[in-house]
Each structure stands twice: as structure tokens, then as C-alpha cells.
Amino acid sequence: MTEVTYYTQDGLDKLKEELQYLKTTGRQMISKAIAEARDKGDLSENAEYDAAKEAQGLHEAKIAKMETTLSTARLIDESKLDTSKVLALSIVKIKNVKNGATMSYQLVAESEADLKTGKISVKSPIAKGLLGKSVGDTTEIEVPAGKMEFEILEISR
């Protein structure tokens, strides 16, 4: 049984768009590469042909994985989410208790995660430590650098 993943409308649209690209343009490009390699002669000693066939296999595996992800994807209606606790798609403002630094993160699906824009995966150590907490709660989270203590300052959508 595969795991359900939750997406924003924007994230789900991007996933569908990428899958469509891989199925159309991506497949055409690989098919063309295989045809060009096949035209170069003996297939038993043709490294380009082997590489193109391997690329095709990897491409098809990526398509299959994305189709599985899409089949288990669930759209979250952000307007109906409770803002009293940290949930998927919450925007959480936290403070590092040790040094006083504040940061804001949105908890999103793994494929939507982008630290530059403040989006972290709900499967990341920090997000796991924040899930279910309320404003004012302090939580100790095990991160690769050791244990860090955070205070939740604000939860929004």
C-alpha cells in the first residue's frame, strides 16, 4: 500500500504538467535518440544504443513513479484547515530557543519542498517535530546537527 501525499492546487498542477511533459516530449526525445543510435550500425557493439535504451528505462521508471504519486495524491482545501495546530500546508513561524533566531516554513509534500522559498517537506525532521503542536508550544527536535529547541510563535495558512 502506498502512502497518501497531500498537495496544494499549485503543487498538484505542477505534478500533472511534468508527467504530461515526460509522457509526450520526453518519450519523443528518447525515441529519437534510440533511432539515431540504431542508425549507427551494429547494435551489439553500439554504446550509444545501450545508453539510449538505459535512459529509456529510467525515463519509464520515473513516469511510473509519478503516476503512482499522482494516484495517491490528495488535494487539501486550505480554507478548511484548522490553524490552532501545525498540520500539512501550515505556515509556521518558529524561534530557535538557543540563539533567538526566527524563521518561517510552510510544511508541504516532499515533491513541493524548496528551502529557498521556505517550503519544507512534512517528512523532514523539523516538520515532523512541529506537526500537531500549537502556538506557544516548545519542542525539541533531533536534526543532523544535534538536538535543537524551537518555540512556535505563529501558525497560519
Question: Which key phrases capture this entry?
Answer:
single chain; 157 residues; alpha/beta; five-stranded mixed beta sheet; two-stranded parallel sheet; 3 helices; elongated
What features would you describe in this structure?
The chain has 157 residues and is α/β, with parallel strands linked by helices. Helix content is 39%, strand content 25%. The protein contains three helices and seven strands. The strands form two sheets. A five-stranded mixed beta sheet has the order 5-4-3-7-6. Strand 6 and strand 7 form a beta hairpin. Helix 1 runs antiparallel to helix 2. The longest helix has 30 residues. The radius of gyration is 22 Å and the shape is elongated. The relative contact order is 0.15. The mean pLDDT is 86.
Shape: elongated
Amount of beta strand: 15-25%
Q: Main sheet: which strands, in order across?
A: 5-4-3-7-6
The residue fraction in helices comes out at: 25-40%
Radius of gyration: 22 Å
The SSE order reads: EHHEEEEHEE
What gap, in angstroms, lies between the N and C termini? 30 Å
Summarize model confidence as the mean pLDDT. 86
Task: Name the poorly predicted regions.
Answer: none
User: Given the structure, what is the number of helices?
Assistant: 3
What is the number of beta strands? 7
The profile of the biggest β sheet is: 5 strands, mixed
